[in-house]
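Comment thread on ticket #2218

A.B. wrote:
> Attaching the input chain for the structure job we discussed in standup.
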Amino acid sequence: MFLSSRHDHAGGIIEYRTECLTGIRTRICPERIRRGIGAPVIPLYSNDGCPFCPDKIKEVTPVFPSGSRLCIGESTTFPNLYPYALFHIVTVMTHDHQVSQFTFDHLYDALLGQICVMNEQTGYVSINWNYLPSAGASLPHPHLQGLTDVVPDTLPNAYIKGSEEYYHLHGRSWWDLLRESESKSERCLSGTNLFWYAHHVPIGEKEIRCILPGVTISDFQSSVFLFAKDLLRIIEFLQDMGHGAWNMSIFFGTDKEREYFSGFASIVARINPNPLSTSDTAFMEKLHLEPVIMTLPEELGSIWRNSNRE
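C.D. wrote:
> Ran it. Output below, let me know if you need it in another format.
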């Protein structure tokens, strides 16, 4: 599934990994965690003027052409006022401005809101979550973003194209091979409802992926309940390791890729908000397009098992 080369240096190791299907590369440097640059305490954010809080959301957020917003539980879904996709929506997840402990209903209701609206769209769909400013959130109030475009974005496109080539060469789905391989590896996060694992060539710190049982956003309707249950456990796992901020994306294909593609989710830990605005993204990630990771995926699998989460 991937190629690896490990090199020793005075302070430890550097491991270079390349994913065979996509050519994506990463480098893992465990000793860099000793820098201790992450703040352990999440600051409290004022809700003054927040457009997503209950007293403002119905006054200042836009509505769909029908003149309405979609409300499910605490969640509210509406068009993005500043879109960067052909179709772009926002789902505010909670009434609370800042959440330290999410519930199943928070996740499930918000995901349902995304599905209900995005299911009406044609094209390539993704559901996304930046949680807290250090993960790119413009507002700390928890919210999902749904995007649809006529062509897949760069990362899912690499997997769609690679999966298609693999299928035509080998007559089977690469995703089936991935599941078989990872289920036997140290990276497998067993005990979940769907299939989750620490990705072998991580594109972000402590990257965890889920291989979905379907391909399209419509397929996701039948598994979103189980996905939300698992996601809550994954978030709690990251929080137990000291991470209060994260990015998540769920990528979907279309019916024409059904033979060889699978929808998948990725969640990565981000540096906690800190007074200096220290970032975990620098020239390697932004310009070299090759992330520097601190945690070996195999170590992440070990932490999962040792925390009795199976």
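A.B. wrote:
> Thanks. Noting for the ticket: Residues 51-310 form a domain with the HIT family, subunit A fold (CATH 3.30.428.10).
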